[in-house]
Every structure is written in structure tokens, then in C-alpha cells.
Amino acid sequence: MPSLNPQKKLTHYTSFHPFIAWLVFLILAGFALNELNQIRTIWRLNDLIENPEKINSSDADLPPEVLFAKARYLNDQGDYQEALRLYLQIEHQGNENFRLKVQYNMGVIYLQQASKLWKSKGVWEYSQINTLLDLTEQYLRQVLNKQPDHWQARFNLEYALRIRPPAKEEEKSDWQGHKSSVHAIMPGIPEGGP
After folding, report:
1. For the whole model, what pTM was predicted?
2. At how many degrees (to 10) do helices 80-90 and 64-77 cross?
3. Could you report the per-residue pLDDT of 36-86, keeping only the tens digit for each?
4. Which positions ≥6 away from 157 have C-beta within 8 Å?
5. How far is the C-alpha of 15 from the C-alpha of 177, rounded, in Å?
6. CA–CA separation, 114 vs 129, rounded Å?
7. Cβ atoms within 10 A of the Cβ of 49, count?
């Protein structure tokens, strides 16, 4: 009976063609380089989020989370208009939770501006204060419609409603006459005319 050599059989199945080995190596190296590139991108974006002063907001390929960090930084620095511009740019991006954070922050910026204006100018800036408070209410109500237990939005909305200037009273006309002719409403010259 012939004996089988198990090592000979094993070497037969384990031998690879060098071309296949190089092809597998190149494919794995490509995957590794792609992963390394993604990791470097994530590190760069995390660094930008941690240091928002480095962010160039005109860069078109930045994700909305990075622009959100820049907008928060600008708001903290007092540049409300640029922060609002960035928030408006990313308002409809990301998931619902992200959009709620953007809307809440926009409402708070409008509230900050209205409160500051109300404290410095009072009712002299009635229309501008009311416009800012209308925008505040709009954004905070959007947040509360989707997340009714958002206590910060509820608190700020209550504050916005409390600082709203009283409505202007319309001037009442004391005139009770009829407008049957032009002469009826024109004042006369006392004791006739020349």
C-alpha cells in the first residue's frame, strides 16, 4: 500500500502565486492609507472644534459641526451678526438634534440683542426690539414644538415674553364731525378774511 506524504499535500495547497500575494498586499495597503487619511482628517477637525479661533469660516468644505463651533465662539466674542450668518448657513444641515441646537442658539442671540437694546435705549427702539423678540419667539417655539421638555428654551421664551415692550396705543381722534365737504374740515379764518 502506498503511503501518502502529508507535507507534500500541504505545500501544494499553501503555495500562492507571487502576483496574487502582491495584489492582496496592495489592496490592504490602499485600505490602510485610506483609513490613515480619514483619521488625520478627524484629528484636524477635532483640533478646529477645540480651537475655533483657527477656523476660516469661508472654507467651503467644512462640516456643519465645525461651523457650529465657530459660530458659538463668535457669539462669545460678541460678533452676533457673523455668528447668525454661520447659524443660518447650517440651519438645515445635520440631524434633528443638531438643527434644534442651531435654532436654540439663534433664538438666544436674538434675545441677547433685544435685551441689550431694551436696557440701553428702552422704548425708543420699540420696533427693533419687537422684531428681535419676534425672531426669538419663532426659533424658541420651533425648539419647543419638537422638544417640549427643553427647559432652557422654555426659560428664555418666558424671559422674551416678559421683556416685550407694551403695545403702542393708537392715537384717538377727538374730531366727531362729518366729511361732507372740504370746507367742513378746513379751519376758518377768525373774523373773516381780507
Report:
1. 0.64
2. 160
3. 887 887 787 777 777 778 777 777 678 888 889 889 999 888 888 999 999
4. 107, 136, 137, 140, 141, 144
5. 113
6. 5
7. 18
Contact 140, 152 (CB under 8 A): no
CA distance 117 to 134: 14
**CA–CA gap between residue 9 and residue 93 (Å, rounded):** 60
Tell the residue number behind the cell numbers 499553501, with chain if given: 14
Supply angle C-alpha 11, 15, 21, rounded to 5: 160
DSSP assignment of 114-166 equals: HHHHHHHHGGGGHHHHHHHHHHHHHHHHHHHHH-TT-HHHHHHHHHHHHHPPP
Q: Is 148 exposed, middle or buried (0-12, 13-18, 19+ CB in 10 A)?
A: exposed
Residue count of the chain? 194
- Residue 118 grid cell: 431694551
d(Cα 78, Cα 72) in Å, to the nearest integer?
Answer: 10
Other Cβ atoms less than 10 A from the Cβ of 70: the count is 23
136, 111 contact by CB (below 8 A): yes
